[in-house]
Design a protein that fits this description.
This protein is of the alpha/beta class. The chain has one domain: TIM Barrel (Alpha-Beta Barrel), CATH 3.20.20. It is built from 15 helices and 15 strands. The strands form four sheets. An eight-stranded parallel beta sheet has the order 5-4-3-2-1-13-12-7. A three-stranded mixed beta sheet has the order 6-8-9, covered by helices on one side. It has a two-stranded antiparallel ribbon with strand order 10-11. Strand 10 and strand 11 form a beta hairpin. The structure holds 6-O-phosphono-beta-D-glucopyranose (BG6). The site of 6-O-phosphono-beta-D-glucopyranose has 14 residues, from loops.
């Protein structure tokens, strides 16, 4: 659909940027913090671990000042559960509480709206030792953790996100370092426990904080059939249901997606659902949907028993599923230097589909491009490819707004350079460069990139700057 004129961004649109605790903070064992599962991971070869990351823990004031300099209206960050509760439950670590208190106060000082992710891939190690998400007692632990957060920060934090990319943890946990089992049934049992934990947190949030808003934060992206063959369309619907709707149908409507329920039944992988669970899921209601979007996917039909594609076996072992769908290339799309498809129009269709399906306001909590940024001899970082990526994607938000979709914010990934999930700090996402390499910490200097100034202009004008 071509619009004669595009709607302007609302004046209170939350232009922001995003990070997560374990990828940015460092100070993994300082000031009473307990280890998390991410701290205990063995990093892939030639790649840094997360122990120092961007050392934000020790640069927090400087970092927030830079974010304020960009004119950010919002900053999305996650809280490290084991910094607050080193054992995952029990005694609270005052110094951990204090760090986030200072961060929130600093943001508010600059009129930046804090958007808090309660859990972003870094489970307290102590809880992981007891089975982590496989152990049903984690629901109570998550609820208690949520209570500590609401009690301590609820007076200043209005926007809460429950669990970052629950779907990717279940589907790609091997890649994210969050998987603990190869059993399909156990994975979906963990998923069930996450859904219940999230629902309990949403119920509690609405009880304790009358003005707060809370929502899930899955990774949502549209899926194309690789051809107009009806079988490929079925495969596309299958993969859409498995990667998107399973999570949102449960979070928003409190139901299990029927296609996925029968898929799990067929594979003897149904989660055990106890009495009262479905009522809890129904009682937890989000106020909005936050979602992360990087790339679309394309799939084709593949019969049961068909041989698996080699790269798929290596990249995403457990989700490869003959009889259900098969991932395909998309010759219509370009790729980032790290091989991720670039699909701004897919971003628009994703927003439209989400809004059509759930009728809840949307905020995009991640979107961005990983690049091998470098500082040139004049000390600048000219990340033109990032500017182009943002320009194209933000244009599609405007298209979606004009289509009638309610979008109230955009917090792309990432505010400053941080350690990627598996490819170290050489895969950079930030508006602000952090002067360190995977194994050489250099001076950790912060250098605003070209995209920093571009985004600053966009925020100041509340519209996409004209290309120069
Ligand atoms: C999202 C995660 O999936 O993608 C982030 O929420 C992650 O934690 C981001 O960093 C980019 O992925 P990657 O693997 O390039 O770091």
């Amino acid at each position: 659909m071509y619009h004669k004129e595009l709607k302007s961004f609302p004046t209170n649109f939350l232009w922001g940027a995003s990070t997560s605790a374990y990828q940015i903070e460092g100070a993994w064992n300082e000031d009473g913090k307990g280890p998390s599962t991410q701290d205990m991971l063995v990093a892939p070869e030639n790649t840094t671990d997360f122990k120092i990351a961007s050392d934000h823990y020790h640069h927090m004031e400087e970092d927030v000042k830079l974010l304020a300099g960009m004119g950010l209206k919002a900053y999305r960050f996650s809280i490290s559960w084991s910094r607050i509760l080193p054992q995952g439950r029990g005694e609270v670590n005052e110094k951990g509480l204090d760090f986030y208190n200072r961060l929130i106060n600093e943001l508010i000082k600059y009129k930046i709206e804090p958007i808090v992710t309660m859990f972003h891939f870094d489970l307290p190690w102590a809880l992981a030792q007891e089975g982590g998400w496989s152990n049903r007692s984690i629901i109570e632990d998550f609820k208690n953790y949520a209570k500590v957060l609401f009690e301590n920060y609820g007076d200043r934090v209005k926007y809460w996100l429950t669990i970052n990319e629950q779907n990717n943890m279940i589907l790609y946990g091997d890649l994210l370092g969050t998987a603990t089992t190869n059993s399909l049934q156990e994975r979906y049992q963990q998923n069930h426990h996450m859904l219940l934990s999230q629902a309990e947190a949403m119920i509690l949030c609405h009880k304790m904080l009358l003005n707060a808003k809370i929502g899930p934060a899955p990774n949502i992206a549209n899926v194309y059939p690789s051809s107009s063959k009806p079988e490929d369309m079925v495969a596309a619907e299958n993969w859409t249901a498995l990667r998107n709707w399973l999570y949102l149908d449960a979070s928003v409507r409190g139901i299990y997606n029927p296609t996925i329920w029968s898929y799990l039944k067929d594979r003897d992988a149904l989660p055990r659902v106890e009495e009262g669970d479905m009522e809890t899921l129904k009682a937890g209601n989000p106020d909005f949907i936050a979602f992360n979007y990087y790339k679309s996917t394309t799939v084709s039909a593949v019969g049961p028993g068909a041989p698996l594609k080699r790269d798929e076996i290596e990249k995403a072992k457990i989700i490869t599923d003959p009889g259900f769908y098969q991932l395909e290339d998309n010759p219509n799309l370009e790729k980032t230097p790290f091989g991720w498809f670039i699909d701004p129009i897919g971003f628009r269709t994703t927003m439209r589909e989400l809004y059509d399906r759930y009728h809840l306001p949307l905020i995009i909590t991640e979107n961005g491009i990983g690049l091998y940024d470098e500082v040139d001899e004049d000390g600048n970082v000219n990340d033109d490819a990032r500017i182009l990526y943002y320009q194209q994607h933000i244009k599609q938000i405007q298209e979606a707004l004009t289509d009638g979709v309610e979008v109230f914010g955009y917090t792309p990934w990432s505010a400053i350079d941080l350690v990627s999930t598996r490819e170290g700090i050489r895969k950079r996402y930030g508006f602000i460069y952090v002067n360190r390499e995977d194994f050489d910490l250099l001076d950790m200097k912060r250098i605003p990139k070209k995209s920093y100034y571009w985004y600053k202009e966009l925020i100041a004008q509340n519209k996409i700057p004209k290309s120069k």
